[in-house]
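ingest -> fold -> write
write: protein_1
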Amino acid sequence: MLLPPRPTTDRTISASERARRIATPEAQRLLVAARKLIARRGAGAANINAIAAECGLAGTSLLYHFGTKGRLLVELLRQGHERLAGLLNVELRGAAAPAEAAASIARVLEGYLPEAREGDRLGVVAEATGRAAGNREVALLLGQERAYAAAAITRELAACPAATRAAPPEQVAALIVVVVDGAAALPPGSGGALTQDALTRIFAALLVPWPETTSAPEAEASGALG
């Protein structure tokens, strides 16, 4: 699934030109190199020259395509969100009931969370946020990317009636983002606690209407009290 056109606040380069540059094979090589370097050394240690050198290019190449490291980091987040939305699109297609939708989301996240941790998602978010604090352009881009990501995930959920029977898609999308970012913040080794079963229970609590989540004994007790 494609997200909305990439925003840009560069006064000398149009949004379409920036998008064209980012879509070139050389820019994509830089993004791949950035992901590999960040996975090895962390987002803070992956500077412009090191990222470019990772794929045999000069730092000026990165500046030409992305303008700043902050914009490159936002693009990395964007690609991660796009992949997550695409995975949800595939998994939710066959979900006919809320419990199945919860299990589908859990399967996606169980596979996606290790990728997010390996790619130092928390470091990328922190680095981008830090650069946004001193750079209005990066702040605007980061804010727009977060909004686009939430909208993309929300659209995938809205297309699956089983995922929105008990809660609006915006709430479910917010929980997905919280789980992804929260898992990235966990100490190494502790992310295993978020198993598919645990994730299914978390999302079932939100997706499954409450009568369907009540166990048989609880339902009988409730009926007896009535």
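write: protein_2
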Amino acid sequence: MKALELTIVFAYLIALIVFGVALQKRATKTETSYYVADRAFGGVLNGLAMFTVIMSAAAFLGMSGLAYSTGVSVMWVDFVALFGLGIVFVFVVEGFRRANVLTVPEFFGQKYGLIAQAAAAIIITVLFVPYIIAQLKAGALVAASLTGMSYPSAVVIIGAVFTVYVTLGGMYAVTWTDAFQAVLMFIGMAIAFVTGLVIFGGWSGVLGALQQTGNTWMIDIFSGGRFPWWLAWGFFFQFGLGSIALPHALIRFYCVRDLKQARLSIGVAILMMGLFYFMIPFVGIFARILLPGLSDPDSAYIQLVLKTLPGWVAALGLAGLLAACMSTVDGMLLKAASSVSHDLYTKVIARNREVPESRKVRIAVATILLVGAISIVGALKPPQLIAILIGMLFGCFAGAFLAPLLLGIWWKGVSQAGGTAGIVGGFVVAVALTLAPGSWWFMPLKYWATPVAVIVSTLLTIFVSLAFPPEKTITATGGGH
């Protein structure tokens, strides 16, 4: 084991648990305290937390790994994710915030009824398990690389730590630790980016190295055919549309004091992501030149940092990756907990009957422990190419939620039957095509999943609403209504 790195990692993990313990009393007073931190945060703090929730290990390992394989063409993913957040800023944040609920499924329940709320809660909980597994892989890889411990041991330790501190501290612990981890993430990526430029003596040196190694295709926006245009098209739908409908990001709009702070949150997140996304492709290129032939492209960032930096600086750089993993997983665990406790139990099973706050929190804690345990087991044999897996999950969220979300905000004629049909139908189509083998026309079926599912969901929501109109008009909550 590497004593210095091991000490740093364990000190960091222990600090997270201590932080959760310190906030436990404040966080567990009520459901509102546990899930949205009493709506007490400002826009900058909340925006930093939103940045970490969206970026995750998919950005650090997944995007740098994809850049290692395909070069600057990974920017297609970067651009469309920012496009998605721009859509959220313009068309979603105000109407979504006005609903004044505790969870994303409750928003759908308010618009479309209990069946829609239950369906949304189940979809979120089911999709979060593979999502968390992907993040756990990233965290375990960095912990194992830093400390020398085995990968399975790292999975169990990392998974147990964030499960415990989320259980104890709820959204208060999640938000404060995520904001701190946002700084670590940015420092980690900046260290790798600046180190690479210094090693090559600037961009001209990078170009020279690419020419010498025969890798000039890496600065082609389509990477000489290695990143086909249809993949860019597929990623546009997965990441661009998926970014609009991420439940663990949307819930951030309910954690702030008012609409002004909600808008500031998304602005801070877009700014941080833009800077971060600028650096990722070049870090992947640096790794390709210095470390050709990596068997697992997802390890490119880790191997680059370990090769080029001294021990304590490498530990700092990789701490950013560990932060990226944990800051996404904690938000997902809390969202899964709210889906089960608040949406399924309190709203659907108990039908809004008086349920003690202590029982609601106990159910949430039990959900976090269960989902955390299942994810730890699944992460022991994780998939490769995290970015591809994350893109597919983004697409499933878009297929299920995008059309019912936007139409619920902006169209007065949407009905309960229409919204429910859109959620269920879009999800079924997205999952079916994501898992289907083979290709159609110019790209594999899994990359058709998002556009086809969004279209199906939109048509179902509209035409079922027209066939079964609301008994009374549902009030649209978008701007101008």
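write: annotation protein_2
The two ends are 61 Å apart (CA to CA).
Residues 117 and 259 are 24 Å apart (CA to CA).
pipeline exit 0
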